[in-house]
Design a protein that fits this description.
Layout (H helix, E strand, L loop, with lengths): L2 H35 L1 H16 L5 H23 L5 H18 L3 H13 L4 H32 L4 H10 L3 H21 L5 H11 L2 H27 L11 H16 L9 H12 L4 H17 L1 H7 L31
Helix pairs in contact: 1-2, 2-13, 3-4, 3-6, 3-10, 4-5, 4-14, 5-6, 6-9, 6-10, 6-11, 10-11, 10-13, 11-12, 12-13
Length: about 350
């Protein structure tokens, strides 16, 4: 990785890490204070911990498999965004390492840094590697929006509608504030893009290259959406695994919507891996949908333990895959030849 790209990533990681840890500590401290000062909150936590022992632990292996599938889809998305041949096993292991790095940085920045480093190790030029890793994050956001638009009508028209109805009642009246936030955020985002236009030139060029490969673009978006959908299924199974949640398989679609909304809300706080904010958002949305507080917390704790923390040891063990091989060559995918970067012959 060239010196400039490395310096930019390092400074960004330092700033985001400091802000993220500060906010996470503040959230956890506030939560601890509320728990200590509220008998109801303490009873909820106590009930949630007891509920862990009553959960259907036979579903945990299924959750573990879904986590692996999630990272495999992430590797497929990276491969197609880069437009070069990447060994899917190594690319999947690199996604575990990226997730581990993101537990410290938050905001997806750790994943961007690890993916960029992995691509340079596979022979992709450093500047283009950083741009591709950034485009992958943006593409993931677009894919999530498309997935949410597709899943929401299904969730509202399937099952008994009880969870969706209660959730709608609790969230009624929030449309105005959300529009106000968007009215402020969109102009501010536009100004930020204008001020950072020089630094965004690389990602813009990477987007243009990807747009000229519609097959890769479609597969990248589909794989990115699949990563979120798989995690949403894992979350729904975590809720179903808690007997006291009183949720039926017919309400599966609503649980997927709850996960997507909660994960998005938790990600707005730039903490390390959404620590604290994601848990709070998911529990709050489950409670708004009518799930009792203690079972809701139990389900979220099980889900986060398996999907968020269990991959960390694997990510540490697979960190060596990020360095790649000395003298690696850049080989385009056969179905979508890369026309912007010359493809050298495979080394003998």
């Amino acid at each position: 990785m060239n010196v400039r790209a490395h310096h930019v990533l390092r400074r960004a990681r330092e700033h985001r890490r400091a802000i993220g840890w500060g906010l996470a500590v503040a959230v956890l401290a506030a939560g601890a204070w509320v728990t200590a000062s509220s008998g109801e909150a303490a009873a909820t936590v106590s009930g949630a911990l007891r509920g862990i022992g009553d959960a259907h632990w036979g579903l945990v292996p299924v959750l573990a498999v879904l986590v692996v599938v999630h990272f495999w889809f992430s590797a497929v998305a990276l491969r197609r965004a880069a437009g070069v041949r990447l060994p899917l096993l190594h690319a999947t292991m690199a996604q575990f390492t990226g997730a581990t790095a993101n537990r410290l940085t938050g905001g997806g920045l750790g994943t961007v840094a690890v993916n960029a480093r992995y691509l340079t190790g596979r022979g992709v030029p450093a500047g283009r590697a950083v741009a591709v890793a950034g485009v992958l994050q943006v593409g993931g956001g677009v894919a999530d929006l498309l997935l949410f638009a597709a899943v929401l009508p299904i969730a509202l028209t399937t099952g008994d509608g009880a969870l969706a109805a209660r959730l709608g009642e609790r969230l009624d009246g929030l449309g105005g504030p959300l529009l106000a936030v968007l009215a402020v955020a969109v102009p501010v985002g536009g100004v930020a893009v204008w001020l950072l236009r020089d630094r965004l030139r690389g990602p813009a060029e990477a987007c243009a290259r990807l747009a000229r490969r519609p097959g890769d673009l479609a597969i990248m978006l589909a794989a990115s959406a699949a990563t979120t959908f798989v995690m949403a299924v894992a979350f729904a199974l975590s809720v179903l695994a808690v007997p006291g949640a009183a949720v039926t398989p017919g309400q599966f679609g609503t649980l997927i919507v709850v996960y997507m909304a909660g994960a998005a809300a938790g990600g707005l706080v730039p903490g390390p891996g959404g620590l604290g904010s994601t848990e709070a958002a998911l529990v709050a949305l489950l409670a708004a949908a009518g799930v009792p507080a203690a079972p809701a917390l139990t389900a979220v704790l099980i889900f986060r333990a398996v999907s968020h923390w269990a991959p960390v040891p694997i990510g540490l063990l697979t960190a060596g895959t990020v360095r790649g091989r000395k003298g690696a060559t850049l080989v385009a995918l056969p179905a979508t030849p890369h026309r912007d970067v010359p493809v050298p012959a495979r080394a003998a």
